[in-house]
Amino acid sequence: MKNETIIERLGILADAAKYDASCASSGTSKKDSRLGKGIGSTEGMGICHAYAPDGRCISLLKVLLTNHCIFDCHYCVNRKSSNVRRARFTPQEVADLTINFYRRNYIEGLFLSSGIFKSSNHTMEQMVEVARILRDDYDFRGYIHLKTIPEADPELVYRAGLYADRVSINVELPTDSGLTRLAPDKNAMQIEGAMGGVKSAITQSKDEIKRFRHAPKFAPAGQSTQMIVGADAATDSDIVGKASRLYDSFKLRRVYYSAFSPIPDASAVLPLKRPPLVREHRLYQSDWLMRFYGYKPNEVMQATEADGNLPLDIDPKLAWALKFREFFPVDVNRASKERLLRVPGLGVKAVERIITARKHRSLTLDDIAKLTVSIAKVRPFLIASNWRPTTLTDRADLRTLLAPKSEQLELFGA
C-alpha cells in the first residue's frame, strides 16, 4: 500500500464504497458560501453532478477511509477473510481530496464510510477527524454524511453528528436471525441502541436551538439506514415490517435497500446469485406508499404474493388495488384526497391538480389522461363525468391487461 498513489488508492476505496446505497443528500439545513464566507454550499449555483457507472446521478465523493476490516461479515467484500486489494487514506488525505474535487466542481460534498481497523473507536475517531478538518481547518460548508459505527463509544458518534449533516447506522439485514448468521461480529441490540442515541441527540439539538440561537446543530439532515435484500431468507413482508418499525422508533429520514450482490470467494452460506434488481425497486415503491400515500405497513404486506414477496411484474399500489377491488371505482369529482391516492397511476401531484381543477368544473376522462402517463392503468379504477368502468374493474384478466408487456431485446437492434 505504501507504494500506491493517491489515485490508485482512490480507485480501490471508491469502488469498495459502491455497495452502500444510503448516500442521498436531501433534507439538510442550508449552509451557503455565496457571500464569500467559507467554501462549499449545499445548494445554489456552482453545484454539479457526476454519474456513476450504473447511471445514477450523484454529487458526492463517496469513499471508504479504508477497506481493511477486523470483522468477518459473510456478505461484505471487505470482510477480514476476503482476498481483495487493501488500501487506506489518512484523514488529511480524504479532506484534501474532498476540497480539491469541490474546487474543480466535481462534487458538492462527502459520503464517508470505512472498514473497522484496529478498533471501532479508533476508526470512528479517524472519520470524525476528516469532518473536523473540513469544517474547522477548511471552513467547508458543503454536505457531509458520515457512516457511524454502532460499536464505537457514544461520545464519538455524538461528535460525528456535530460535524456531519447526516449520520447513518446500517442495520444490515432485515431479521435478527439473519444478522446473527451472516454478521457474527454485529449485534442487533447494539445497532438499534446506537440509532436510539442518535435520535435522542437530534431531538435534544432541536430543542436547544429553539431556546438558544447559537446552540450547535446535530445531524440537521437526520439519520438513515440500509438493509441488504436477498442475502438471507427474509421476505418483503419482513423487510416492510422492519422498515416501518425503524421509521416509527427512530424517526429515520430514509431506509435504503441494497440488492445483495455476489462477491469473490463468497461464503457457502450466501446465495449463488443476486435477487432480481426489480425486487429492490418494488421495496422502494412500497416505502414511498407508506411515506407519501397514506398506506399502513399491513396494507403494503397485503399486496404481497403467497410467498410473502411483492410481485415483480406490477407495482405494489396496483397489486393492492387488484386485491381490494371493492374499494373501487373512485369518483374523481367527489372522492377525498386519501381515496384518490389509492388509484393506480395517479401520483401525489396529479391528485393535487385534480382536487384544484374540480373546484371549477367537472372532470372528464380526457382531463385525467393529461395528468397521468398511462390512462389505460387508471381507467378501471375511477369514475369521471363521461366514464364508468362498469365490469372492467372486476375482470378476471385485469392483471394481465395492466401488467407491463415484456419486450424481447434485439441483439443487433438500432
From TrEMBL:
Q: Entry's Pfam families?
A: Fer4_12
Record has Metal-binding as a keyword:
yes
| Entry annotated with the keyword S-adenosyl-L-methionine | yes
Q: What SMART domains does the annotation carry?
A: Elp3
Please spell out the taxonomic lineage of the organism that makes this protein. Answer: Bacteria, Pseudomonadati, Pseudomonadota, Alphaproteobacteria, Sphingomonadales
Q: What is this protein called?
A: Putative DNA modification/repair radical SAM protein
Please give the Gene Ontology molecular function terms for this protein. Answer: catalytic activity; iron-sulfur cluster binding; metal ion binding
Q: Where is the Elp3/MiaA/NifB-like radical SAM core domain?
A: 59-286
Q: Which cofactor does it need?
A: [4Fe-4S] cluster
Organism annotation: Parapontixanthobacter aurantiacus
Q: Which UniProt keywords apply?
A: Iron, Iron-sulfur, Metal-binding, S-adenosyl-L-methionine
